[in-house]
Write a structure and sequence with these properties.
Layout: E1 2-10, E2 13-19, H1 24-30, H2 35-43, H3 47-64, E3 70-72, E4 78-80, E5 86-92, E6 95-101, E7 104-112, H4 135-155, E8 167-169, E9 177-185, E10 190-200, E11 203-211
Antiparallel strand pairs: 1-2, 2-6, 3-4, 5-6, 7-11, 8-9, 9-10, 10-11
Helix pairs in contact: 1-3
């Protein structure tokens, strides 16, 4: 199916979403891998990881052209090689999403919702965060928290951040989509973010962006 949606947050910032329905040979024909890409691709053993990797490159080509290439820093944070855009990448189950911006730092995460998230909520929540007691909304509420923390982790360059203790999502009433606020605070970072969340089929998606200060 390929790129199923492009959502422009403003003239310089866009989310692209790709639904993975292609097999490996088809995806391989859709991308031009750099030598660095080929090295990473060959490390992966599972078909699913290879498919995810190629879907990211195919989606990026759809958004920025086939010449656009991804590189990574020491924390495995992705960058566009020519420096033209900030980028954040996420994939889960059959969806891949990329958030790019010319002038804003970005973070995005999506997750396919499985009910067993309740079993490991303590792995990403802290005592200051509040989850609804209404069972029909609880799973979605938990996934919003999880995705929001991952998006903030990514926008802050990942290094030295504890998702439980350093990232806090302010209490909010869960809706189908909306805005929430979160903060990152540790010895190295003190920052606040506004995040947007939405449900797509059985996926939760959360993204955030913030003006880059040079």
């Amino acid at each position: 199916m390929g790129c199923i949606t492009k959502h422009y947050l403003n003239k310089d910032t866009v989310i692209g979403v790709w639904k993975i329905e292609e097999d490996l040979p088809t995806l391989l024909e859709m991308v031009e891998m750099s030598p660095e890409d080929k090295k990473r691709y060959e490390i992966y053993r599972s078909t699913s990881r290879k498919t995810e990797f190629l879907s990211v490159r195919a989606l990026l080509a759809e958004m920025l052209g086939r010449e656009a290439k991804i590189i990574y820093n020491k924390n495995n944070k992705p960058f566009i090689k020519d420096g033209s855009h900030f980028i954040s990448i996420t994939h889960s189950n059959k969806l891949t999403a990329i958030l790019i911006s010319r002038n804003e730092r970005v973070g995005i995460d999506l997750e396919y919702m499985r009910v067993n998230i309740n079993a490991f909520a303590s792995k990403f929540l802290n005592r200051r965060e509040k989850i609804t007691r209404r069972w029909a909304d609880r799973t979605y509420h938990l996934y919003i928290h999880w995705c929001a923390k991952e998006a903030m982790y990514k926008i802050c360059d990942k290094e030295g951040i504890n998702i439980v203790n350093d990232i806090t999502i302010e209490p909010f009433t869960v809706q189908e989509s909306g805005e929430i606020r979160g903060s990152v605070k540790n010895e190295r970072i003190v920052d606040q973010f506004t995040l947007c969340y939405a449900r797509y089929d059985n996926y939760t998606i959360v993204w955030t962006k913030k003006k880059h200060e040079s």
